[in-house]
Amino acid sequence: MATSVLNSSVLVLNRFYQPVHVTSVKRAFSLLYQGVAKAIDQQYRLYEFEDWAALSAAAHHDAIGTPHKRIRVPRVVVLMAYEYLPKGRVRFSRLNIYARDQDTCQYCGRQLPRSELNLDHVVPRAQGGKTTWENVVCSCIACNLKKGGRTPEQASMRLLKKPVRPRWTPLMRGAHKRVTYREWLPFLNVADASYWNVELVDE
Ligand SMILES: [Zn+2]
User: Fold this and answer.
1) pLDDT value at 27 more than 80
2) pLDDT for 98-129, tens place per residue?
3) N or C: which end of the chain has fewer CB within 10 A?
4) CA of 142 to the centre of ligand 1 (A)
5) Which one, of 16, 203, 200, 186, lies nearest residue 91 by Cα?
């Protein structure tokens, strides 16, 4: 049995399909076998261990077992009775700022596709504004241009609400630094993980 496959990564979701962490194939099979987790396929169907084991493992699937019986490796499992998210600091990333602000421009209040949004420093960096939860908001490109290098007061633009550090964890920490499998993407809700999840820093 290939140890590399057994040690490769499986994304673990809580029962709300929110990513909680990344585990090994070995551990994921153990969770499945114990009935604690179900495997999920790319059509979002859930499988208990026996049903999953009965699926045919096509040649392109990673699988474990013998030449006579190959069991397909799940890349995403759901913990059926687990509803918590890992505790800890919320990653200060573009994705999480957009999530905090609900993809809504904090100046004009329009909710837009993420491709039409930008990040805005409330107090511009040129005026000493920091790259922090409290000073960065989601803005549409038009408002961003209109505001330019001014504070909201200077530009006579008002923020919808005061930006704060969120208390929730919209994505698990760590694991999204390495989106290893295509199957993870629907659950990480990212088009390009590196763009969305790179930690934002003061330049
Ligand atoms: Zn706007």
Assistant:
1) yes
2) 888 989 999 999 999 989 999 999 999 999 99
3) C
4) 6
5) 200
Ligand 1 centroid from CA 157, angstroms: 10
How far, in Å, is the centroid of ligand 1 from the Cα of 101? 12
Q: Considering the entire predicted model, what is its pTM?
A: 0.51
**What 3 state SS string does the chain have?**
CCHHHHCCEEEEECCCCCEEEEEEHHHHHHHHHCCCEEEECCCCCEECHHHHHHCCCCCCCCEEECCCCEEECCCEEEECCCCCCCCCCCCCEHHHHHHHCCCECCCCCCECCHHHEEEEECCCHHHCCCCCCCCEEEEEHHHHHHHCCCCHHHHCCCCCCCCCCCCCCCCCCCHHHCCCCHHHHHHHCCCCHHHHHCECCCC
How far is the centre of ligand 1, averaged over its atoms, from the C-alpha of 93 (Å)? 20
Amino acid sitting at position 72: R
State the virtual CA torsion across 170, 173, 175, 179 in degrees, nearest 10.
50
Contact present, 194 and 185 (Cβ < 8 Å): no
